[in-house]
Amino acid sequence: MLHTLRSLGRLPRKMADHVGLLRRDPERFGRNLLQFTDPKLFQERLIDVLDAVPMHVTVDSASSAPPHLNVLNSALTRSGMTGGPNTIINLALRIARLGVPVRLVTTVATSTLDPAWFRTHAVQLIGDPNLPDVPIVTAANAARPMVIGPNDMFLATHWTTAQQLKAILPRMASQQFFYMLQEFEPAFYAWSSNYALALETYGLDFWPVFNESLLATYMMGQGVGRLGDPAMRDRATIFEPAVEARLFHPPAGPVPVRPKRLLFYARPTNTRNMFGLGLMALRLASADPAFAGWQFRAIGGRGSVPPLPLAAGHALQPEAWMDYEGYAQSLREADVLLCPMLSPHTSYPVLEMAASGGLSVTNTFATKTRVELEKLSGNIVATEPTVEAMAAGLIAAAERANAGYVRTAAIDMARDWAATLDPAAVRLAGLFASITARKQLN
Length: 442
What we know:
- The protein is an alpha/beta fold.
- The chain has helices at 2-24, 26-37, 39-44, 83-96, 115-126, 159-166, 193-200, 213-222, 230-235, 275-285, 324-332, 348-355, 370-376, 387-402, 417-439, and strands at residues 57-59, 69-73, 102-106, 136-138, 146-148, 153-156, 177-181, 206-211, 237-239, 261-265, 295-299, 308-309, 315-318, 336-338, 359-363, 380-383.
- The protein folds into two domains: 57-242 and 419-439, Rossmann fold; 261-402, Rossmann fold, CATH 3.40.50.2000.
- Helix 4 (83-96) crosses helix 15 (417-439).
- The termini are far apart.
């Protein structure tokens, strides 16, 4: 009886603790609640590994089909078509145009992709309505495994796909694969299971495909896995991002009279985009008179950002998810972009805004120095990744915009993906042909 009374006496404090946890960490609160509502699912989720599911593949050793290049994507969804996935599709299509049999392969179960929408999107990416025949198949259905030939090869595009591929490679004629590296992905996580598993993939036998030399320099300088081996430098294919002039350019004709507008590339679930730091900098900067009368819009968050108060009566209002052309138009209609990126990669929105004649405020990191960023464009305002420095950069950008600067596409980069991805596609097609010819099973 005394024990029961003591437990009841602690109940208000426990309830207050749980309410506090709900406010601080809703995800953890949900996991705790799951212990009682669905114990089996709670136990499964104790394994803190992202996409810890196998690919379902059957290797047909009797296949006489020519080797395929299977381009692995966790998923292909309409809302997932950001810079990285778009570049994967763009490169895959260009490899296929060279005569390589290419398949786009999803490796986790997702909603059915609309083929008509995907074709329209792919045409926008490559700028050519005459697309090669690239089927989209899935390796996520246990009831209907994907059939591959023993001489096929793979292009992994995220560490989870490299991990899924690891179990399949021993059954293949060649245990080597291509690995598209668009970020130092272990850094997506605190030291954890996912950090260790992502790091492990750099020790596999792969041919690196780097999106941006700043990233290649950083990753090879870290010396992780095989990337510290000088031989991997010879294997590497490195291409620079391009900013398509047909999409990303200053407004044509007179600019309508309207309030100045700031876009915040706000992605709370993508930790390297530092949503919290960016919001704090925006709240500090918006108190400055330079932002009087401005509009503030959140983009890139896929509906995950609610209206948020800023300083001096301003508010950050979310924008609906846009297609590729709608996104480009939104940059032309804005004056300043805030895009934090704690990574050696420049981030596509930073480059695309600069090419659209607006001012991009972003941060430095490692090999991505202020000198390197400003060499790319005078429209880039590079700051240290601190609240105060980024706020100062925002105010400086607003003052430039208020002074009536002339919007010009001041960017020292290729203005067509053909200039950067076509040479990469040619090299990869050649490597694919030589490796599969050398390793084919009899």
